[in-house]
């Protein structure tokens, strides 16, 4: 069952524009679009467009290549602002496998959120890269995913949504699959609950 922490009512998050970031395949983002009917205004990646064509989710590339923008591999504050635009009012930024830490000035300027496939509500040691692998190798019996606000510290922002699942005795592939499904469920709830100003 998806749980809200109560730190922030999702309805108080207002969005007129959505900028989504990915560094890996963009499959989570593709699944969010398919399941919610919401489309990001911009999709930002640090992959080159050639790498996107080769590595990214084919459906995402085929249907949204006109919205995919490349930024440098290690963006500065200036690079982020060039990518998303200076006007931060009613704009949300979401991270989907974005393997970069957001500069602190942006964390406080924009409404920014990250999905993390590690149950950091219960296991803070799962912060950072590859929490699924850490949980599997650590023989965790319970795993999960969270959506949290982005702050300058890695995976330390206030958690808005989380869900626990049993991962006992799962192989690594099934652990990744289950946690990916849980993350998708959280994003669907997030996008259903926030207040969209352009509807």
Structure commentary:
The protein is α/β, with parallel strands linked by helices and 199 residues long. The chain has a single domain, classed as 3-Layer(aba) Sandwich (Rossmann fold). It has helices spanning 27-36, 49-55, 58-64, 77-84, 104-109, 131-137, 172-193, and strands at 3-4, 14-15, 17-22, 42-45, 68-70, 91-95, 111-116, 142-149, 159-166, 195-196.
Structure in a nutshell:
This protein has seven helices and ten strands. With 199 residues, it is α/β, with parallel strands linked by helices.
CATH superfamily: Formyl transferase, N-terminal domain
The H-and-E topology, N to C, reads as EEEHEHHEHEHEHEEHE
Could you tell me how far the N terminus lies from the C terminus, measured between alpha carbons in angstroms? 28 Å
Please give the domain count: 1
* Average pLDDT figure: 93
Looking at CATH, which topology would you report? Rossmann fold
**Annotation, overall tally of beta strands:** 10
The level-1 CATH class: Alpha Beta
List the helices and strands and how they pair.
Blueprint: E1 3-4, E2 14-15, E3 17-22, H1 27-36, E4 42-45, H2 49-55, H3 58-64, E5 68-70, H4 77-84, E6 91-95, H5 104-109, E7 111-116, H6 131-137, E8 142-149, E9 159-166, H7 172-193, E10 195-196
Parallel strand pairs: 2-10, 3-4, 3-6, 4-5, 6-7
Antiparallel strand pairs: 1-9, 7-8, 8-9
Helix pairs in contact: 1-7
List its salient traits:
199 residues; 7 helices; Rossmann fold; 10 strands; alpha/beta
């Amino acid at each position: 069952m998806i749980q809200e922490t109560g730190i922030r009512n999702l309805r108080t998050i207002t969005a007129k524009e959505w900028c989504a970031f990915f560094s890996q395949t963009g499959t989570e983002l593709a699944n969010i679009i398919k399941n919610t009917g919401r489309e990001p205004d911009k999709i930002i990646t640090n992959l080159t467009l050639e790498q996107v064509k080769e590595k990214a989710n084919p459906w995402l590339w085929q249907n949204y290549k006109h919205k995919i923008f490349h930024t440098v591999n290690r963006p500065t504050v200036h690079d982020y602002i060039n990518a998303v635009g200076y006007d931060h009012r009613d704009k949300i930024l979401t991270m989907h496998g974005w393997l970069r830490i957001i500069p602190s000035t942006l964390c406080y300027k924009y409404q920014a959120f990250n999905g993390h496939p590690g149950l950091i509500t219960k296991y803070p040691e799962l912060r950072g890269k590859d929490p699924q692998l850490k949980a599997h190798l650590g023989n965790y019996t319970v795993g999960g995913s969270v959506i949290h606000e982005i702050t300058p510290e890695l995976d330390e922002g206030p958690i808005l949504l989380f869900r626990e699942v049993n991962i006992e005795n799962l192989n690594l592939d099934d652990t990744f699959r289950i946690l990916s499904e849980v993350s998708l469920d959280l994003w669907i709830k997030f996008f259903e609950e926030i207040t969209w100003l352009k509807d």
